Amino acid sequence: MKNNGVVNGVAAKPTAMELQTLRCEVEEIVRSTPVIDIHTHLFAPEFGDMNLFGIDELLTYHYLVAEMFRAARISPDRFWRMSKAEQAELVWQSLFVEKLPISEAARGVVTVLSALGIDSSRTNLSEIRDFFKTQNVGGHIDRILELANVGAIVMTNDPFDTAEMEVWEGKPDIDSRFHASLRMDRLLNNWRQTAERLEGAGFGVDIHMSGDTTAEIRRYLDMCIEQMKPLYMAVSLPDDFQYPTGDVRNRLINEIIFPTAREHKLPFTLMVGVRRGVNPALRSAGDGVGRADVAAVERMCMENPDISFLATFLSRENQHELCVAARKFSNLMPFGCWWFLNNPSIVAEITTERLELLGSTFIPQHSDARVLEQLIYKWQHSKRVIADCLYSSYEQLVFAGRMATRHEIQRDVRKMFSGNFHEWVGLPAGISDDASGFDYENGEDVSSYPIPSDPVADLQ
Ligand code: RAT
Ligand code: ZN
Predict the structure, then answer these.
(1) pTM of the full predicted structure?
(2) What's the structural domain count of the chain?
């Protein structure tokens, strides 16, 4: 295209071939750009049994358990009395054998198995189990990260979980691809029990937040931060969350979370709109969604301009408002298509909306993986959609009169898949590389990171 698409002041019409080339380029760049997965429930291998992988874990993922209850007529009571192996067999039978696995979570298992060379239509569950049994943990993690093209992972670390804290107290030498985040749910959503727990552990804490309570909780968190070196603090919040109010959660946020965020330069991540235990009998599969008030987050951003916030909302209805809020507050970073939104149709809608309102200044996705191999499908599926949305943006730009160069596309994609987060959390050199290896100052690729040839493409 001549003159960058503009001839005599009029945008030149691109040829079909030019658009096809652009499309291929965008798809290839999105596929081959490594991501920092900014929110997962995965654990580094040093956490032993908490590091979940393998077919039985994949099949008993709570997204699939919820779908199984619709497909198989079994009572929750009976299901929860089964062993994990029996539960996995029931999920396999009801969602993969008796039906085609067309839901997003079920298709995800098919994607994972295909990536590992297993044809799920011809292989029975015991053969699949044999495959996973023969994998060596270290090599398996490397292979999965390479297939998913994930360079770094942020775990969800609960400072109020006894088993997890025992691991941290042993000062493990954590696999450098895994980073911590400090999850505040038990503090902010379960204050009474957490206060009692801290009191039991010898901290001067009382449920009325009197005396030294604030200082004592801060002392505990400072110790955890010293141990875990988290990249951010995070909380999931209900759909009726409000700020500011005088309730205990608001007090804890103002008196503990914000001062801690300031002192340690930690962003605060808000995941808003979950309705926990809508159907408690389904346990972890029983949570639901509700439309939340984005203005509560706006007020937090407004009152705390020196704190960086990451935010994701669970309700589809909140997505547009979140984009508008981010336009008003540059200390707010929208991220991810969370949980019930992580379906191609909704990812497409949200990503397009964000590109239109925010350009490349957001983080399009996180995996929320709980089982290692889920990284493959969550990223492969999302990246396809994100590539489509990005291509549409660049195509419209061409029609407006500007062709994007390969370098410019790479710059955008790298920012969205790692650079924006990297900057947000101030990931210091040395903790981990920016997986993209991109030098934002000079616009050069200075990566020494081993970027797999084209792992996702190989799967398609
Ligand atoms: O997506 C999920 O797996 C949910 O169960 C939640 O864990 C959610 O992502 C959260 O972090 O609260
Ligand atoms: Zn999560």
Answers:
(1) 0.93
(2) 1
